[in-house]
User: Which sequence fits this backbone?
């Protein structure tokens, strides 16, 4: 009997127990609780003002329209927000990966001088934080306020991500690094040519963490940036939501119902267009994500 046939026969012998069915129903219910509101957001963005006023909770609009998306993109601010967020990713993501991987590699080596002290200082920042005022004063003294560099540097390093990557580097055999040293390779060459090619799972995981953090970043931009044309996507989305909520609260006549519904449609359209890119980005790294987190979270 071949291995494939044996695997099939063993799969047939496994039967679903009552507990398996209960768990399946519970997980299905949780999945629906997550998916139905998300689907409702998408459908509202395609609905007309009258249809939304008649039925706020809808699974399929009877008369779908792209009016909310046209109004959203005609404004121009959402496209500017996309461009600013892409600039954050293009510059900030490689910088964050370089800073995190280089420090993680150094602290994962047993002969690194001052290793314990540096690791304690990094760990200390996870427990105690200086706050936004010292950070703002530092950015101001460096003349970075009002520029995207302040947002990039404020989120360029995460102690948690560094510890995950450091623990993953611990799991790599020391003999590989020793062999490279015997061949005359320096530490930078070892890190880029030996360690990082073997660390694809944790690199994919940390890339996803930093990518989501930059994509969802809004607080630092709210503190450091002043010009509307510099705001990243999430700040633009926040502005749209605040304006829509203000319009809805000021609606006091029957004619304002259509305006309120249209504002809600624009708000839902803005939520959808800001979610799509990061949702497309996640499946590309998903196969490495679980392995990277599991290995990086356990010190071997």
Assistant:
């Amino acid at each position: 009997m071949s291995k494939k046939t044996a695997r099939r026969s063993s799969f047939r012998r496994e039967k679903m127990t009552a507990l398996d069915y209960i768990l399946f129903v519970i997980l299905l219910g949780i999945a629906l609780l997550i998916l139905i509101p998300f689907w409702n957001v998408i459908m509202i963005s395609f609905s007309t003002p009258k249809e939304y006023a008649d039925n706020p909770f809808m699974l399929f609009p009877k008369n779908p329209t792209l009016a909310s998306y046209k109004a959203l993109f005609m404004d121009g601010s959402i496209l500017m927000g996309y461009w600013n967020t892409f600039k954050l990713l293009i510059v900030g993501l490689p910088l964050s990966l370089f800073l995190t991987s280089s420090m993680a590699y150094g602290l994962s080596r047993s002969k690194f001088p001052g290793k314990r002290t540096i690791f304690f200082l990094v760990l200390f920042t996870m427990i105690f934080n200086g706050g936004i005022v010292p950070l703002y004063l530092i950015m101001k003294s460096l003349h970075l306020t009002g520029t995207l560099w302040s947002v990039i540097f404020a989120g360029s390093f995460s102690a948690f991500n560094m510890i995950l990557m450091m623990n993953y580097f611990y799991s790599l055999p020391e003999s590989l690094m020793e062999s490279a040293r015997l061949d005359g390779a320096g530490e930078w060459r070892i890190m880029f040519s030996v360690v990082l090619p073997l660390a694809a799972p944790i690199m994919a995981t940390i890339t996803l963490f930093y990518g989501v953090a930059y994509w969802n970043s809004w607080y630092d931009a709210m503190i450091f940036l002043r010009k509307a044309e510099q705001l990243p996507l999430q700040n633009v989305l926040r502005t749209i939501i605040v304006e829509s909520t203000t319009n809805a609260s000021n609606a006091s006549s029957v004619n304002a119902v259509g305006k309120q519904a249209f504002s809600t449609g624009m708000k839902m359209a803005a939520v959808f267009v800001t979610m799509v890119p990061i949702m497309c980005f996640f499946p590309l790294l998903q196969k490495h994500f679980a392995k990277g987190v599991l290995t990086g979270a356990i010190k071997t």
